[in-house]
Write a structure and sequence with these properties.
The complex is a heterodimer of chains A (571) and B (601). Chain A has 571 residues and is α/β, with parallel strands linked by helices. In chain A, 35% of the residues lie in helices and 19% in strands. Chain B is built from 16 helices and 20 strands. In chain B, helix 11 packs across helix 15. Classes of the chains: A alpha/beta (571), B alpha/beta (601). Chains A and B meet through helix 11, strand 15, strand 16 and helix 15 of A and helix 10, strand 17, strand 18 and helix 14 of B. Chain A: It is an enzyme of class 1 (oxidoreductase).
Amino acid sequence: MTFTTHFSHCSTSCNDNSKLFSSSSRSSPAIHYRFSGSRRLCRYRINSANGNPLKALPSLPISESAADYDYDDNVETGDSHSTLSITVVGASGDLAKKKIFPALFALYYEDWLPQNFRVFGYARTKMTDEELRNMISRTLTCRVDKREDCEQKMNNFLGRCFYQAGQYSSEEHFAELDTKLKEKEGGKSSNRLFYLSIPPNIFVDVVRCASLRASSATGWTRVIVEKPFGRDSESSAELTKCLKQYLTEEQIFRIDHYLGKELVENLSVLRFSNRVFEPLWSRDYIRNVQLIFSEDFGTEGRGGYFDNYGIIRDIMQNHLLQILTLFAMETPVSLDAEDIRNEKVKVLRSMKTLQLEDVTLGQYKGFSKGGKLYPGYTDDPTVPKDSITPTFAAAALFINNARWDGVPFLMKAGKALHTKRAEIRVQFRHVPGNLYKRNFGTDLDKATNELVLRVQPDEAIYLKINNKVPGLGMRLDRSDLNLLYKARYPREIPDAYERLLLDAIEGERRLFIRSDELDAAWALFSPMLKELEEKRIVPELYPYGSRGPVGAHYLAAKHDVRWGDLSGDDS
Amino acid sequence: MASLSSAQYRSYSSNSFPPASSNGHRHNHRLLSFSSPIPRRSPPVVLCLQQSQGNSRPNVVLMEDGAVATPVNPAQKKEETVKKLEDGLLSSSGISTEELKEAAGFDVKENESSVSITVVGASGDLAKKKIFPALFALYYEGCLPKHFTVFGYARSKMTDAELRDMVSKTLTCRIDQRENCGEKIDQFLKRCFYHSGQYDSQEHFAALDKKLKEHEGGRESNRLFYLSIPPNIFIDAVKCASSSASAASGWTRVIVEKPFGRDSESSAALTKALKQYLTEDQIFRIDHYLGKELVENLSVLRFSNLIFEPLWSRQYIRNVQLIFSEDFGTEGRGGYFDNYGIIRDIMQNHLLQILALFAMETPVSLDAEDIRNEKVKVLRSMRTLRLEDVVIGQYKSHTRGGVTHPGYTDDKTVPKDSVTPTFAAAALFIDNPRWDGVPFLMKAGKALHSKGAEIRVQFRHVPGNLYNRNIGTDLDQATNELVIRVQPDEAIYLKINNKVPGLGMRLDRSNLNLLYSTRYSKEIPDAYERLLLDAIEGERRLFIRSDELDAAWSLFTPVLKELEEKRTIPEYYPYGSRGPVGAHYLAARYKVRWGDLGIEQ
């Protein structure tokens, strides 16, 4: 099989989206592979942008691979590859600078990007290519564990970055972008990825313009959108409807960057590839599940966007709920995106709509500690003085299916708390008829096993077990079976954005949110959110840097739960 | 890292000095049944009272993270104990408040009970290396009662001073508590005495009795004999001790060490002979593996963690491996060993005991009889070991880096044509509903490449694993494994499949870890300390009952006889190697792969 025929086969299959997934990658006994199917085949014997063999290829029986095709790194010379153009719409924004460009560079540095890729910045600001490169270069860093040639690679990368100024709602300007893209693509088959890093009110405009004027004629066109995906069921449905006027479901990549976190990815691996966990994964053994997110800083002058949404929309309805569904879903038929998302939707649809009485709200107030004054939420100049937007919320959710009936899933999310973390805590039931009961004192629930997946910072998995304190007596204590990622894996863990960008490039949709999933998620939260706003329910105030409002404890107590992160034997 | 235990501590008074009964066992039950608030010896004993030193410093456990796990206020607790003891005991046994107070550690009156520990065979190796140091450690930790005396008894002529000299050479202090060590050693040695005599002489034991009485000074006397002597003189010593040196007013207990016979018949004969002079309750058959920290912890892990018990059956466990290895040979002391071989020396007792603890059903309580009942049930459900399920080996000499390590038969104390196995592997099965079909593999050997004892539990593979293609062709290589490392470097770890961080989807096996040395800074007590203390307190949980011993022998005796009748030649393996390859084939027959010889351990 010659390369060209192989390639042409691919380029058709790439447009053919998900149908090919399973057949193409299932057959390969890969040690090191990524999930996606069709894209992989296409880049199969291609060098990466660095001239190294492209990563993540399945070990199909063509071993000569990259070495036989000595492509040079000159993207301007016309060879027969397809090209990849990534357009960051809203290139001068914060997210673009802090996350998207660095993630793209990291992918480039690690040889994950194909040979012919280019990055375009698009925004309203007038800027030259040079200015963009300058801006980007300030935030690029190299992976700590592989510093060689960093400087050179940065320069190579920046050489592939270009800028186009334009209005977000101007088809004309997008047409200009298209011209520029075509010019760089040099007539090759082109794949285009648009990353919308812009405020939600201009989503649809940009999608319209990009779709109508700057879609790829020969390859795929995909659009990554960031939260917020609406404020409630209606606005979300409206947004989806508008997006679908210009894009098919397969083209929309709704990003939830929590799904790109290492330990969230690992959640399924833990469950489904370890015999010791799956039998325990049900109401028979699990007493409750806690999903905890906390930040140790407030809005710090950037409350404008936040105040319109609040912590429930900002963190719970998306990030925590997504983790919950991954945690609770039934075993999918396969690891293919559609299979996984089908299972997630099933969980969401089995859930009880959140009730107002199962929610506690909080808002941080000013607090001075050690002579330093920490401002309250409403002290933020970008926040209305009378705002009752919650900066903290705790909620109890239930999944009314055979596996989880009656098990409380508690969520807690807050800003300006005493620590910064995101974790999943699984508290097991107590041992029935425990022989060691008298060694535990009166509260058996304090002595239960607990599995903790710490998503950030300091990724770790640990299982709290009861253990005999060594010595002549018989004293028990809870110690941890530990896996601290830092100790086991010295390699830097990639940023969530890297994984998600790469997945979008490869057409892997597993970690992106499907429209029906989004609908189901909103349906759970919308009624309660509306009620909150209609009744203008005042949040409980808590001091900046504290452990949050005590209401969270009462909510937990109501469902016989004790927060694992505030129990004293865990920091 | 708060400790979960309620404030309980070791108190002998609760059940180990039954004032008017030498039948400690029955007494135990009576005591325990009516007074639940009394801190019980089994299991929740924790801290030793510093009685003998009049020192009330509690035994403090330091956690590595700086937390101090000592929930008791000793003085206050003592009072409570006395109060409870009064409440509990006065009604039934009519002894005075004073006596109770003394028993709980108060210096009220001189008329208290005493404990005399007689080490028969005091000049032997075990006595020097283990028994005296363990007694000292117990004394150092304040675990011995106020009035205790240690007697050495052996044939050699020796003065008290000479004995003390000999003992003192092996005493060390716990590394985490070195203060006053010298002083405490001196105090301890002052309580050590020597009496020389023949092991089969009633007269000499009567002389010992006289001496013991002197030291007991009219107090109630409790006597513990530790028989650290060759098996052929067990009975003689028991006879003499029992008839001429039993305690008149307290209990008399006898600790016996392995070997408990060489097969069913000789073991039964030994038991029968012992029982001529002792009741079952007086016999403490020691298996020092049962005193190891992680063997003790095995039951805690199983029965106090919800996440383990559901997995503890044939449904989830594919096989269990019990592995013992030493990295040295007989080194000139093969005389005893050659008569027994590794199967009797390690497997039939240590490994089988661990197996029984591992596999038993949940006992009714943690009381000794309940646990031992369950262990016997396991042994009786087991299939008698067959010759084809055993592989034996013997080490041969090996030269490495210019050093020649001698083979087993190069040992001068071993016959040149000895076929005694120094290595054995065996597959055992428990034919009960929980374990039907699950191979329990044992492996024990001398002169191997490493030194250790561990339990490995290999779980089944995940049915319909979604990640199958990430694992390669052998699904069994990617199963979970729980490893309990008994020695050295006590640890518990659970091998899990985990995603290697990064953009790909690569799985690897990593460990959920608990390494004792990082979590618990305190030195872990030697098994002998625990067992001696248990014997003093009348706690029989870790000692082997006669019916247990019978059941254990009946599993191994046929195969041992067959091996000897057929003079089966062991497979030779080089000194310092990983043992004979036959062990792999035995494992392979039952679809098992040894967990300790994989690339990753």
